[in-house]
Amino acid sequence: MIQDKESFKKAYLDTFSRVESNPLELSNNWEKYHALVSLVKEMMNSYWVNAVKTNIEKDQRRIYYLSMEFLIGKMLAYNLMNLGLENIVREGLADLNINYDELLLQEEEAPLGNGGLGRLAACYLDSMAQEKDAGYGFGFGIRYKYGLFTQKIVDGCQVEVPDPWLKDGYVWATPKPDRMITVKFKGNVRTAMDGNRIIFIHENYEPVLAVPHDILFLGYMDTSKINYLRLYSAEPVMQDFDLLSFNQGEFAKAAAYRAEVEAISNILYPEDQNQAGRELRLKQEYFLSAASVGDSIAYYKMIYGSLDKFAKRVAFHINDTHPAVSIPELMRILIDEEGMSWEEAWEITVNVFSYTNHTILPEALECWPVDLFRALLPRIYMIIEEIDRRYLQDIGSRYPGDEELLRKTAIIADGRINMAHLSVIGSRSVNGVSRIHSQILKENIFGAFYKITPEKFHNITNGVSHRRFLHYANQPLSDLISQAIGVEWINQATELDKLLAFSNDRGFMEQLAKAKYKNKERLAKYIFERQGVAIDPSSMFDIHVKRLHGYKRQLLNALKIMDLYNAIKEGKTIQPTTFIFGGKAASSYQRAKDVIKLINSVAQIVNNDKQVNDYIRVVFLENFNVSLGEIVYPAADVSEQISTASKEASGTGCMKFMFNGAITLGSRDGANLEIHEAVGDEHFALFGLTAAQVMELSVAGRYNSWDEYSSTPRLKRVIDQLVDGFLQTTYDFHSIRNGLLWENDCFFVLKDFMPYTVAWEGLNQKYADQDQWLQSSLYNIAKAGIFSSDRAIKEYHQLIWNRKGPVV
Ligand code: OAK
């Protein structure tokens, strides 16, 4: 195997001659990249084969993490880092006259997610590999041919362009056709008797093949820490009717069937936290669910011969409700295919499933119209009806006369199927993703369920991969940390706490400042090269990157910048600041797109006004994604986390910034509160309404945004500037202004404006005292350890997946 540069070179050249058709001297960078990935993949494959043996010998539990999204980021450099081979490879390639950095540019990032939920799933894959001794965790998802769109900014507006990430083939994934599953849609269900047992026969269905493509994931510097992400693509079954139609010359019919099937894995829905409500989306959800559950059963029977102890050895975790149909799907397999009774099947099902809720936004809570659902999944619908019937019967007898309770928790009501209710009823555990969010679940949206089954409810605060977002993304800081406290923090993030001992070490603190400066230079260079805007790395980098959404309040930030601009024009002086934004808006979310245009319009005004240029500049980064995040998070001084309290379930960007030493300017929401608790008032700028106040003010008649507007002249001025020609564009921002005034500002932008502005000014003044600033920065890094996804995954194992002690 590869221990040094020479053995690497030999292995690389061997692989190259096996997998490429050109001689090395005539090959292009893609071929060189392809050969390198093939080599790394072969190595990982051999590690996997060993790990799987151990896994079976040790009889380890298997956790299926089902998610419609996995935003995994680029793999090559990250895998090499985890293998400890990056330097060897860089130097070995250089000997062969190959530039490693150029090969890295060949890799396409797999765009298989929208935002927080998808990136969280990827961080959890990383940590499930790392924490494998507690049980093996695997990701199951969909291999969308087109993932999330590429964002272009044209004339200040977002334009969506398809991202054909698979066009050159995606080398990291290996197709596993031998493990494919047939998924059945539509048709009808006939009942028949088998002895004295009723059986259900699904007929005239449309079959679809779910073909897996596996991507291996590594933990850190230990080749037994390895797992995979299995992504399914939908393919047609070349069966009789298809062939027949070909034979009869009905090519159009055959082609239509093929197109309909392939549509299932063709495109990721770009809506973030907004239920699509379309048949295709439900098809995708069932496709993933049926493939994953089908695969788990087939694998289990292959290894153990029967389904004995299935509930002890297997756990399914559903990442929000999107894969919730896997609950009735498991029931279907156990009853219809394995011949179990309802009771036996239910006992297993409710023991293997657990569910994480990631939002309380009403528009994101999935409810399917019964008619659409029943036509697409007739047998699954019957099972859901029966789950609901038995549930209501049980609750009805335990809480006689409590109609309200039944109404609040039923799965099927008003012609719709409530997927969150199905998920709670069909799971043994329900968790929120930050302390405050879990509390809101118990008190509000799942309050009635909490009354019935309080023991089901848990909190597991999110975490992020500190190996990707600090060790890998921020080499200057990672090196400095390792020099100071050793390398153990890479495996055990809470070791970062030891950095506090260096707060009075001048040399260390100077190096800390230098590392930040280097990262800011890197981002400045990126921005200049891509977008032609020159920014000053010694200015305060104030960064707001995340999906565009009303509740995330990029608008509040934009209004603050306009206010600051007005003040600077009137003579105010501040610490020079660069405001950096980034993020995508759902293609159909016009208000969010208006905010992108607004930010770019403000940027135009600010960046072209010499009178303010020494103080502020504004940049909107095009196409924010995981790879760009890896450049952005390390460069931040200020982390903008300003959602309306109660609306951001957790947030994870806040943690990525924290690991990189940014100071949070945060509302009283989601994980902000836990970061604030970890670092204290001195090292965090907290502002604004509490969740309770937001809920209180949301009651009709208790808040009037006009009052804020008319009583705060600074605020009135910027709101009027939206439409009075100040922005020097023909674009119409009336809709934004109307949202704030005529639609009563449902995200409390005006209410939080002054507290936010004051908190920002405090931070900006603090920046003037670099010693004090660096102390806070160090404090944030040192206290970030608990926000590692390793900690979160350990908690999932302890609290949820590892529920019955050892398997045997
Ligand atoms: C997306 C679609 C449907 C439901 C939720 C989401 C989602 O991305 N939610 C986000 O999940 C993150 C991971 O838990 C949280 O950090 C974000 O606060 C939450 O908005």
From TrEMBL:
InterPro entries listed in its UniProt record: Glycg_phsphrylas, Glyco_trans_35
Catalysed reaction equations from the record: [(1->4)-alpha-D-glucosyl](n) + phosphate = [(1->4)-alpha-D-glucosyl](n-1) + alpha-D-glucose 1-phosphate
Annotated GO molecular function terms are:
glycogen phosphorylase activity; pyridoxal phosphate binding
Asked if the record carries the keyword NAD, the reply is no
Keyword Glycosyltransferase listed: yes
List the Pfam families hit by this protein, alphabetically: Phosphorylase (PF00343)
Biological process (GO), any one: glycogen catabolic process
- Listed cofactors: pyridoxal 5'-phosphate
Q: Where is the signal peptide?
A: none
Keyword annotations of the record: Carbohydrate metabolism, Glycosyltransferase, Pyridoxal phosphate, Transferase
Q: Which residues carry this modification: N6-(pyridoxal phosphate)lysine?
A: 656
In short, the EC number is: 2.4.1.1
GO CC annotations, alphabetized: cytoplasm
Family stated for the protein in its record: Belongs to the glycogen phosphorylase family.
Role noted for this protein: Allosteric enzyme that catalyzes the rate-limiting step in glycogen catabolism, the phosphorolytic cleavage of glycogen to produce glucose-1-phosphate, and plays a central role in maintaining cellular and organismal glucose homeostasis.
Name assigned to this protein: Alpha-1,4 glucan phosphorylase
| Species per Swiss-Prot/TrEMBL record | Sporotomaculum syntrophicum
Give the classification, highest ranks. Bacteria, Bacillati, Bacillota, Clostridia, Eubacteriales
